[in-house]
Specification:
Blueprint: E1 2-10, E2 14-24, E3 27-38, H1 40-53, E4 60-65, H2 68-83, E5 87-88, E6 91-92, H3 96-106, E7 110-115, H4 123-141
Parallel strand pairs: 1-4, 4-7
Antiparallel strand pairs: 1-2, 2-3, 5-6
Helix pairs in contact: 1-3
Length: 143
């Protein structure tokens, strides 16, 4: 299973959207959603959480993100945050609710995290960006 995710806000903070593309055995599934008030980082986290939640059974996953915050948070910082009762070097960890949700989701799967440069022409990363932008537009239409 290969997953690509992206999230964003316009402005930041502001109207948020996220997108994910799931690839498995030649099939492609797209997911997206948004929130009327969020941040880029919250949308990046939400994209990964929702993509992993969409999996019906435990999977081996290669998850691609263009967010260093997401990749470094989950692969480097999370164990320390948990050990320090969700405190980072500058105080309480921001977006703790989403980090806890993501931590819960990764317990079901074997996830390898990969970083891709955003807006660099990578097909699936660009598609996730389009899905996130469409979700932002949909949120704006609901106002």
């Amino acid at each position: 299973m290969v997953i690509y995710t992206d999230g964003g806000c316009v402005p930041n903070p502001g109207v948020g959207g996220w997108g994910a593309v799931l690839l498995y055995k030649g099939r492609q599934r797209e997911l997206s959603g948004g929130e009327p008030q969020s941040t880029n980082n919250r949308m990046e986290l939400t994209a990964a959480i929702e993509a992993l939640r969409a999996l019906n059974r435990p999977c081996t996953v290669e998850l691609h993100t263009d967010s260093q915050y997401l990749k470094r948070g989950i692969t480097e910082w999370l164990p320390t945050w948990k050990r320090r009762n969700w405190r980072g070097t500058a105080g309480p960890v921001k977006n703790r609710d989403l980090w806890e949700a993501l931590d819960h989701e990764i317990q079901r799967h074997e996830v390898r995290w990969a970083w891709v440069r955003g807006h660099a022409g990578h097909h699936y990363n660009e598609r996730c960006d389009e899905l996130a932008e469409a979700a932002i537009a949909a949120q704006r239409g609901r106002r």
